[in-house]
Amino acid sequence: xxxxxxxxxxxxxxxxxxxxxxxxxxxxxxxxxxxxxxxxxxxxxxxxxxxxxxxxxxxxxxxxxxxxxxxxxxxxxxxxxxxxxxxxxxxxxxxxxxxxxxxxxxxxxxxxxxxxxxxxxxxxxxxxxxxxxxxxxxxxxxxxxxxxxxxxxxxxxxxxxxxxxxxxxxxxxxxxxxxxxxxxxxxxxxxxxxxxxxxxxxxxxxxxxxxxxxxxxxxxxxxxxxxxxxxxxxxxxxxxxxxxxxxxxxxxxxxxxxxxxxxxxxxxxxxxxxxxxxxxxxxxxxxxxxxxxxxxxxxxxxxxxxxxxxxxxxxxxxxxxxxxxxxxxxxxxxxxxxxxxxxxxxxxxxxxxxxxxxxxxxxxxxxxxxxxxxxxxxxxxxxxxxxxxxxxxxxxxxxxxxxxxxxxxxxxxxxxxxxxxxxxxxxxxxxx
Length: 432
Ligand code: AMP
Ligand code: MG
Known about the structure:
The protein is α/β, with parallel strands linked by helices and 432 residues long. It has helices spanning 4-14, 32-37, 41-44, 81-84, 179-187, 226-236, 251-264, 282-288, 327-345, and strands at 24-28, 60-61, 71-72, 76-79, 93-101, 115-119, 131-134, 138-141, 144-147, 157-158, 169-171, 192-196, 200-206, 210-211, 222-223, 240-247, 267-271, 292-297, 300-301, 305-311, 318-323, 356-361, 365-366, 372-382, 385-390, 408-412, 418-419, 424-429. It has four domains: 4-16 and 198-345, MoaB/Mog-like domain (Molybdenum Cofactor Biosythetic Enzyme, Chain A), CATH 3.40.980.10; 24-63 and 164-196, Molybdopterin biosynthesis moea protein, domain 2, CATH 3.90.105; 71-158, Beta Complex (Molybdopterin biosynthesis moeA protein, domain 3); 356-429, Beta-clip, CATH 2.40.340.10. The model is unreliable at 41-49 (pLDDT under 50).
């Protein structure tokens, strides 16, 4: 049985990220609807759908400076610093206003000594000026402005290129496009982007007892809940699930499903059939199809049986995860090992690893101490401090019911049998 850290090293090293040449596609920054229709409320409903949550597959540079022009950061007056540098309340500078420049307008005049331009936030600085005096520090008299306080040189001027110089890297490859990145890309008119294609993750459930939720239950049957939970998590991890249904505990059926899955996906996930029962065939079939088994079981609770195998491929190995069938064990092993693997494969340069948060246990947490134990429950913040509340009822890998609302797995390392209430515990954060 592998330790968690050995298993984690093996698994995360098996996964090779998508390739910046072959595994990319071009997407529009926004949807076509926005470009054609303008920002109507209707087009908002799918605005940003194309590029949001995608991962950049090449760095972005621009030939534009930002700001694009010297412009004012205030409503006030654009002046020549030399005209106002030593003025004060008793000795104000008096300047003639020769132009008014709202945002979006190209200034017409060159400001001479003794002159100023009325200017508004975001408006282009007129030639001859270098400084803005905010309107609160002035008094207006007809077409003259009285400057009562000396500004600093270049005060309230956003200089062209002060935030970004054309030709430099604007955004690096391998980052997830969220609202702030989309704002940057829109500002620079990057309307088409090279992103990684979504990883393809084939998924099927094994078990003669399984049925889909729409079928009446016959004695002994249970609903295949794992597949729906896992498909949701696959989507949330940025991948595209390929749903291959329920496969019977028959070697031929399993062989056919696995062969199809490895030919069509980057990662394959099955649940069930990886224990030591008479109907647990997955491992022998993986080997018969040329798979190399890297992991059989890991010292975790829940989730001990986890099969990880690879199939060689021209580009990168296809990684197979045979998850345990018990619903909690299936999800815990997904969160702990599979989700980071999918995110690494998807091209994310950073932040694909599991995230742990230190929290105070609200109740005592127990473990047998022999395997790394995950207690599922809820992570919340109280007075700025994270707290962890274990899910009520039995913590049993078949107890699907108290898994609802889980957003954290408290970790009890090997050798720890008890974490008392109010003590600190590491909690694996779960996006669910
Ligand atoms: P197995 O790993 O195939 O021995 O299954 C372990 C337990 O999990 C059994 O009680 C199964 O009925 C249950 N189980 C297996 N697959 C699923 C599934 N897809 N959805 C819900 N429960 C499952
Ligand atoms: Mg089974």
